[in-house]
Amino acid sequence: MAKKAKTVFVCQECGYESPKWMGQCICGAWNTMVEERVFDSSEEDKRGRRTHGSDISGRGRAGRATALTEIQTELYTRLDTGIGELNRVLGGGLVKGSLTLISGEPGIGKSTIIIQAAANIALRYGKVLYVSGEESEEQIKMRADRVCSGQELQNLFLLSETNMENIEEVCKTLEPVFVIIDSIQTMYTAEMDSAPGSVSQVRACGNLLMRIGKVTGVPIFIVAHVTKSGELAGPKIVEHLVDCVLNFTGERSQELRILRSHKNRFGTTSEIGAFEMAEEGLMEVCNLSESFLEGMETAVEGAAVTAIYEGTRPLLLEVQALAAPANVGFARRTAIGVEHTRLNMILAVLDRKAGISLLNHDVYVNIVGGLRPEDTSIDLAVALAIYSAYKRIAIDTKTLSLGEIGLTGELRTVKSADKIIKEAARMGFVRVIMPLRNAVKLKEKPDDLPDGIKIIGVKDLHEAISSL
Predict the structure, then answer these.
(1) Which CATH number does 76-286 carry?
(2) Phi, psi for residue 80 in degrees, rounded to 5
(3) Cβ atoms of residues 148 and 115 within 8 Å
(4) Whole-prediction pTM value?
(5) Domain 291-467 adopts which CATH fold?
(6) Quick one: pLDDT band at residue 209, thresholds 50, 70, 90?
């Protein structure tokens, strides 16, 4: 059925609409009324997201384009979650009207950090709605009593519901400042007959949540499950809809948890947040480098220290390697925290450019702490750790090495080397092996270098091994 069109007159100064032309608008401006033809949208159409002339349900007439200069950017302020590491990963806090998707393995701490953030926002800003489709209200209350003890939680409201229409009505009535959906795979809309968690239901519920968040300006946290391989379960359309995708990683047998942003429309995706799981909840880890370097007091063979620059801070990491003679068949290559293809490339460069043949040796490499750095500046430390394990020579614990290894054996420059040097000096390191071009640039400004640290610039992998 064709939509009916009608004519309205809109003031170009204030946006006032009138069914007839007016010489002077109610705002006082003269001759600013412009004729526009608009189409009435169907009352039953809930698929659109209209913010002009519509309510939380999305109903209303067709939207009108808005000039960029008329949009008020101060409306998109951020909410302080009360958790510094979470604010860091989000880009400074929760943006009003944003949708944030958080995923992670079961038991990793997703619900814990969410209830802590909800309690802090409820204390600072107002009503918070926690919608759970998996746990009862009593279970959430028990967790809140454990991790939020001593806080006033009068503004934290719990809702055990999976029907999106009912959740929408509660949002209209309660008018919260923050909404949590746990989890998206348990939600369903009555407009579809498919089961909760199906592709169509997850897509429809995601669209409905996006409309609620964008129209009302309420930030929404959406919890999602992961598959056995650790990837986000469900259709990829959910990742396209949301503004921020967070992933919680870490070994459940250890206390350290890493929060990383894979997508962020309001900040960088290179930031990471570090937490430590304790009885009273997730505790922030301010000095992450120190936690990664635990146990490096004495020099041992097969261990080297490197550094990466994540977001706005440098991180020091320990790389461990083991080279053992292969007994039967092909030699094994095992890497934790390092890409397998990257490890094979480093081993090939060691063979051709440094004369270290590991064809008959099993090689194991591990990044201590469970971090999986994407930066290639750890290449040199991986190669030196393998060399140390093969030659059974211990590397000084106060020596740091960084640099990307090319196929010809040369060392390529790394980013933010000056900030890494300052962090290394703060942690007590006295020697840094780095690419020659980085070292030359740093020595051109000796006043910026910290005292008591020696910079060794090398051109290739062979020179780096000789410097040991």
Answers:
(1) 3.40.50.300
(2) -80, 120
(3) yes
(4) 0.76
(5) Ribosomal Protein S5; domain 2 (3.30.230)
(6) very high
